[in-house]
Amino acid sequence: MIAAYIRVSTQKQVNEGVSIEMQKMQIIKHLKLIELIGIEEDIMFFIDEGISASSLSRPAMTHLIEDVKKKEIHMIVAYDLSRISRDIFDTNVFFKLIEKHGVILKFLHDDINLTTAGNRFSANVKVAVNQFEREKIIERTNDGLQAIVDSGRYPCGGMVLYGYKKGGDKNLLVNIDEAAIVIKVFELAIQGYTPSQIAMRINEVQENKLFSTSNIHNMLRNKKYSGVFKYKGQIYKNIIPPIITEEHQEKAIKMCRKNNYKRCDKYMFDGLLYCNHCERRLICVHSVGKKGKKYYYYRCSNCEVSIGQIQLLLQMDSIKTVGIDGGLIKELKARNASIKSRLRTIEDNYIARYYNEEQFLKLTNLLEKELLKIEKHMWSIEKEKEELKCRDRKTYYRSFVSKIIVDLNLKKVINTILIEL
Fold first, then answer.
1. Integer Cα distance of 165 and 171 in angstroms
2. How many beta carbons lie within 10 A of that of residue 205, not counting itself?
3. Residue 325 — very low, low, confident or very high, per pLDDT cuts 50/70/90?
4. CA nearest neighbour of 175 among 163, 185, 192, 191
5. What is the pLDDT of residue 275?
6. Burial class of residue 246, CB neighbours in 10 A (0-12, 13-18, 19+)
7. What is the pLDDT of residues 222-279, one digit of tens each?
8. What pairing do the DSSP bridges indicate for beta strands 43-49 and 2-8?
9. Domain 2-134 classified CATH 3.40.190.170?
10. Are the C-beta atoms of residues 74 and 103 closer than 8 Å to each other?
11. Looking at the predicted structure, is the pLDDT value of residue 17 above 70?
12. Structure confidence at residue 148 (pLDDT)
């Protein structure tokens, strides 16, 4: 099989004529000219779009390497050497791999021959030049960003931190509506609510962003919300306007840590259970086994009948569990990671001025919308997992269930009344 590897990392490269379609067209034209193929379908294309050549860890490149190892490819064609890699070490790893498996390597605009020491030296010189160019771009970008920070301006592009918006000078300004939610999160944390409880409460009062427990954890610990910005080891307090004070943030973090060590409340259904016969709320009781193990029950003081917590958990879990597809979760996580990686690449390219503001916003807005959909789907699935921690399981029931009616004689849940959201 003949494989064609195509890569483009920036919009600038597209504008300069090194687009994916152009590379593809040139490779097909060249292989037809030297009569290696008859039709386009004779080539297997491996395409990495919007990905830097700083590493071989790219989706299409990884697939290509796997096929080389399987001996399914006998020839690789690329537009030029820099499409493969701009790193000397990675390029030599790639060269050794194809030499080991007897694969022919052909570039349209680089005459690379690895048969002699002199030829390998020439190839490494070209790779060194490519690596030098990449590192000089990074250095210029970093120097420019440092100058921006030193002048008291915000240097980062990409997704704006929740609670803020970008002003005309690209500095961060407080987003009044989102800042109100941020303040509420910190207030709830100081009052003793856990991150999972806070996430559920916040999701009930707004729909613009779906907060997960990890989102709340990250928000509480993000020093930017108290106006502290760290860049390359230096602390700056004049770049980001604070939404909350440093004192309030420390209180919230301290309370969050304290909650992590609280003993889990073992009564999952405290205050939710009602007797079907007399309509009284059940009280919490427990017994202790011979080996000191506690067993938890709910008892009607009027009917003097009890039901065990284990029986209730089995019935309630069967009600709420709709079947979790592990493969779907894995796929969603992979898509989530892929989109975040693309957003980081786009942000880096924007900082390096390969994209203008309009192109950057168009690309990121589409990806951010898709990311939000995936996160909502993952959130709904995660909430249906059977293996919830004690505290989170109780939070789950209290967030969605208003009342549970139990027939104590049959030891059965006969009705579950949900909270109207």
1. 8
2. 9
3. very low
4. 163
5. 94
6. middle
7. 888 998 888 776 777 877 889 999 999 999 888 877 665 444 467 888 888 999 999 8
8. parallel
9. no
10. yes
11. no
12. 62
Which of 69, 407, 405, 408 is closest to 416 using CA atoms? 405
3-state secondary structure of 416: strand
DSSP string over 249-307: HHHHHHHHHHHHTSPPP--TTTTTEEETTT-PBPEEEEEE-TTS-EEEEEEETTTTEEE
Q: What is the CATH number of domain 164-260?
A: 3.90.1750.20
Inter-CA distances, 114 with 87, 96, 110, 318, 337, Å: 17, 10, 12, 64, 37
| Tens-place pLDDT, residues 196-217 | 788 888 888 888 888 888 788 8
Tokens standing for 109? 């605009």
Q: Are 194 and 259 in contact (CB under 8 A)?
A: yes
Q: How are beta strands 164-166 and 172-174 bridged, if at all?
A: antiparallel
Cα separation, 125 vs 128, in Å, equals 5
Domain extent listing, the chain:
2-134, 164-260, 273-321+386-418, 326-382
How far apart, in whole angstroms, are the C-alpha atoms of residue 419 and residue 199?
17
Q: Give the span between the Cα atoms of 310 and 308, in whole angstroms.
A: 5
Residue where the block lists tokens 């879990």: 317
Tokens 């806070």 belong to 198
C-alpha span between 248 and 188 (Å, rounded):
11
DSSP, res 40: G
Give yes or no for a contact between 269 and 400, defined as CB atoms under 8 angstroms apart.
no
What pTM, to 2 d.p., does this model score?
0.39
Which strand ranges, in their side-by-side order, compose the sheet holding 43-49?
Answer: 43-49, 2-8, 75-78, 104-107
The residue among 363, 379, 370, 361 whose CA lies nearest residue 337 is 370
**Contact (Cβ atoms closer than 8 angstroms) between residue 305 and residue 408:** yes
Cα–chain-centroid distance for residue 73? Answer: 34
Nearest of 268, 265, 272 to residue 416 by alpha carbon:
272
Do 273 and 404 meet the contact criterion of CB atoms below 8 Å apart? Answer: yes
174, containing H or E segment: strand 172-174
